[in-house]
Amino acid sequence: QQQVKQSPQSLIVQKGGISIINCAYENTAFDYFPWYQQFPGKGPALLIAIRPDVSEKKEGRFTISFNKSAKQFSLHIMDSQPGDSATYFCAAQLLFNDYKLSFGAGTTVTVRA
Amino acid sequence: ETGVTQSPTHLIKTRGQQVTLRCSSQSGHNTVSWYQQALGQGPQFIFQYYREEENGRGNFPPRFSGLQFPNYSSELNVNALELDDSALYLCASSLGGAMRYEQYFGPGTRLTVT
């Protein structure tokens, strides 16, 4: 049973464009929502994260939007660059438990120059 | 500061064999989690070790077992390998206490079972 559903599976964006990835979760007890970036042959790298008491968090060109009532959150990549081409995973976590990350299935982003 | 390292990088085993994968946590981190990532999918939680004790386990059979050593490095052991065990095995480490949720991943070990 997948606890975090992620869409789209893949997307192509032009350089300078905006990439948007959406995730939805079921377990309302989740209280930490990180995004990971993974390049081929590498492990996932923590990109940005948000707690449910905040509706938006921005770090550089990356922004998380969080809608607690809809149990949805999204990643926006502004001014997308070819170096952003990677697979992005959303995840959800229960703090103060076993801290396991429940990952979405991933979105492969391709930025065309 | 050294990041999370894993060995070996790649491994080929035959069905029914046993395998041991190793992970060295990031300096100062006392918690290690293991994940299995099948091709084209997100990582799936196997188990976590905190101060040498198992602290949570995902939906994996007992033939997946682990250890954490006093220096906080860790091993993942898989017995009676099956074809479906072919995957990238990821180790993630984190600080203890209130920062235990922030996990940093190693590059993984690619296991192929034939």
Explain what this protein looks like in three dimensions.
The complex is a heterodimer of chains A (113) and B (114). In chain A, a hairpin with a 2-residue loop joins strand 6 (56-59) and strand 7. Chain A is an all-beta fold. Chain A contains no helices and 11 strands. In chain A, strands 2, 4, 5, 9, 10 and 11 form a 6-stranded mixed beta sheet that branches. A 5-stranded antiparallel beta sheet of chain A has the order 1-3-8-7-6, with no helix packed on it. Chain A has strands spanning 4-7, 10-14, 19-25, 33-38, 45-50, 56-59, 62-67, 72-77, 86-93, 101-103, 107-112. Chain B is built from no helices and 11 strands. Chain B has strands spanning 5-7, 10-13, 19-24, 31-37, 44-50, 53-57, 64-68, 74-78, 87-94, 104-105, 109-113. The radius of gyration of chain B is 13 Å and the shape is globular. Chain B is mainly β and 114 residues long. In chain B, strands 2, 4, 5, 6, 9, 10 and 11 form a 7-stranded mixed beta sheet that branches. At the A-B interface, strand 5, strand 9 and strand 10 of A face strand 4, strand 5, strand 6, strand 9 and strand 10 of B.
